[in-house]
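Troubleshooting entry. Yesterday's outputs looked truncated, so today I'm pasting the complete records for two proteins to confirm everything comes through intact. If either block looks cut off, that's the bug. Protein one:
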Amino acid sequence: MKPAKSNRSMKSLLEILFVSTRLGLTSFGGPTAHLGYFHEEYVRRKKWMDEKSYADLVALAQFLPGPASSQVGIGIGVMRAGVIGGIISFLGFTLPSVIALILFAGLLTTTDIGNAGWIHGLKLVAVAVVAHAIIGMAKNLTPDATRKTIALFALIGTLLWQSAWTQVGVILLAALVGFLLFKQQESTEPAKSTFPITKRVSAICLVLFAGLLVLLPILRELTGSVWVAMIDSFYRSGSLVFGGGHVVLPLLEQEFVPTGWISEESFLAGYGATQAVPGPLFTFAAYIGTVMKGWQGGLVATFAVFLPAFLLILGALPFWDQLRNNPEVKGAIMGVNAAVIGILIAALYTPIWTSSVLQPTDFALAAVLFTMLAYWKLSPWMVVVAGAVGGMVLSYL
C-alpha cells in the first residue's frame, strides 16, 4: 500500500509542477488576470476544486497581505498535495518570470521593448481572461439583487478611491454588511476542504511571520550586512502590501532608490520588464536583486519578498475551513465574495482596460480573444499566442 500511495503522491506533485509551470509561462496581465487563468485551469478544466472553495480561497487571499494570486496558487497546491504541493505550485508559477527578469536585468537598461506590439497584444489577452473569469464567478457569487448591489458599491468605492488601503476597507465593509444581511441564511451543504497540515504547524508559521518582521530590522542594525539589509527590505515590502502586486512597486522604490542601491532609470526599466513577462508582479524583486548583487541577489530577493505570503497562507488555511462553516461567519463571506466581483470589475477597467484598449482595433482583437476562450473553448496558451501575434499585426496597421 505504501508504494502505491507514494506513487500517487509523486504523480500529484508532477501534475502540479506541470500545470503551474504552464501557467507561469502563459499567465500575463497581472494578479487579477492570474486569478482568471487559475479559475479556468484549476476549477473549469482540472476540477481540482469547486467554485465555492475557489471563491473562498480568493477571499482569504484578499484578506491577507501579499500577492493574492501567488497565495491562491500556493493554497491550491497545499490542498492538492500538502505543503510540498504548495511549494511546487509556487515554484512552477514563479520561476519562469524570475529567470526571465534575472536575464533581463543585464539587457533592458539598453533595450526598449516597452512599446513592442506583442506586449500590447498580451495586455489584450488579459482583458479577455479577466472578463471571462468575472462572468463565470459572478453567476455563483452574485446570484441575487442584494449581492449584485454589494458588488456595485465595491466597484464604485474601488474606482473612486484608488489607494493601497481601499481594497482592504471595501472587503471589511462588505464583510460587515454580509454578516448583518445574511447571518440567518443556512448553506445548502457545509463547505469542506482538505488541508493536510496541522494547526500547530500553521501557528508556527504565523509566529515566524511576525517574528521575522520584528527581528530582521534588529539584525540589520547589529550586523551591518548588505545581505541582511536586502532580506529585511524585501521581506518588509512583501509583508505590508495590500491591494495586489502593483502596490509592491512603490514600496520597493521607496526601499531601494533613495538609498542609492538602484538608480531611478534602472528601476523604471525593470518595471517595464516586469510588465512584459508572465507570472506574479512580485518577481520584480528578482530584477532589483540582480542589479544589486548579481543572480544570487535575484534569488535571495525573490525568496525574501515571497516568504511572508507563504507563511501567511500556510498559517491561515487550516483555520479558514472552520471559519467559513461557522453560521456567524458565512454571511460575512457571502458579502466578501460579492465584493470581490466588484473589485475584479474595477481592476478590469483600470489598469487593464485603460492601458490596453486604446482604439477600435484593440477592442476588436480583445473580442476575438474572448470568443476563443469563452465560446471556442481553446486552451489559454493558445489565446496568449494569438494575442501576441495579433498585437504584432496591429502594430503594423
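Protein two, checking that the full record survives here as well:
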Amino acid sequence: MTRKIIHIDMDAFYAAVEQRDDPRLRGRPVVVGGSPDSRGVVATASYEARRYGIRSAMPAARARLLCPEAVFLRPRFETYRKVSRQIQTIFRRYTALVEPLSLDEAYLDVSECRTCRGSATLIARRIKEEIYANTELRASAGVSYNKFLAKLASDIDKPDGLYLIAPDAGAKFVAELEIGRFHGVGRATEARMHALGIYTGADLRQWSLEELEAAFGKRGPFYYYIARGIDERPVRPVRERKSLGSETTFSRDLSDISAMLAALRPLAAEVLANLQKKQLLAYTFTLKVKFHDFQLITRAHSARAPVTDIEALMALLGALLERTEAVSKPVRLLGVTASGLRTASETEQQLGLF
C-alpha cells in the first residue's frame, strides 16, 4: 500500500507567536534569539525580517547590521511549548503516528485515516485550518508518499503553503532538484558532490549503489534511493536525539589558527541555534578536525553546566583546537557536535539533586 505522509512545518513559529500575542509587532521585522547587547544567535526571524537576509543560526550582531530597526526578543519557551502541545493535540485527532522533529514541525502518517475520504491532501488542509482556528498561527504542509518528499514539499509554497508530490511525480521531482536542497545533504557533502560532478538529483541517479557506497560510506544507500524518490523510513512516534552537529570541508586547506576559529564560528552558531530551536541543552561539545593528509581526530569537553552562549562555546572550541596539531598541519575539515543532550525540564530535575 502506498503510504500517505504529511509534513507540517509552522511558519516562523517563535516570531509568529510573538506577533500574535503583541499586535504592535505585526508587520514589523521580529527576531527571536540574541540578547540586547547582540550576543547569541537567531532562533527564528519573522518573514518581515527575512526580507533583509536574516536567517536562523545567524549571529545576532549580524542580524542587527542587516536590519537595525528589527525588534529583538528573548525566547519564551514555555509559551512556545504550550502552543506546540495544542498543535500536537490536533495532529493526534487524525493519527497516532506522529513524529515530532521539534516544537514547530512533525511528520504524520495518515495512511489509515478515513477522514476526508482518506485524502491526505484534504486532511493536511483541514489540519492547517484547525491550527489557525485554535492558535491563530499559519502552517505549511507537504504531502507525499514518503518522509523525504513530504518535507521537501512543505518548503515549496511557504508561508501558509500546501503542496502535493504524488507517487507518479516523485522521481521526476527529485531529478530536477538541486543537490543542495536535498534534506540529508549538508554543506560539506554538497561541496563534495559538486567536486564529483553531482549537481542535481538526475546527476546523483547516474551513480550506482556500489559507487555511492565507495564515495560516501554508510550514507551511500540513502543517496542512491532518494535519487529515485524512494524513502522507506517509517514515521516513528518516539524519537530520541543523541547528538546534533555541523561541519564544513574547505576548498583550500587552512593553516592559520585565526582562520580556523573564524570558520568554526558559523558552525558553532548553527549548532546553538538548532539546540535552541529544539529546546535542548548540551553538556558535551566535540571538535572534529580532518587534516590535509585525511587524518581525522576529535577533541571533546564535558561540563556540569550546559553551554548556551556563542562566546563561551568559541572559547571552548579554541581550547580544544589547541589540543590538536592544527598549529603545524593544514586542516581540510572542521566540525562541531553537541551531545549529552537534555531538555530544560530534565536539567532542572538534575540540578535539584545537588
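Both blocks look complete. Sanity check on protein two: The CA atoms of residues 4 and 111 lie 5 Å apart.
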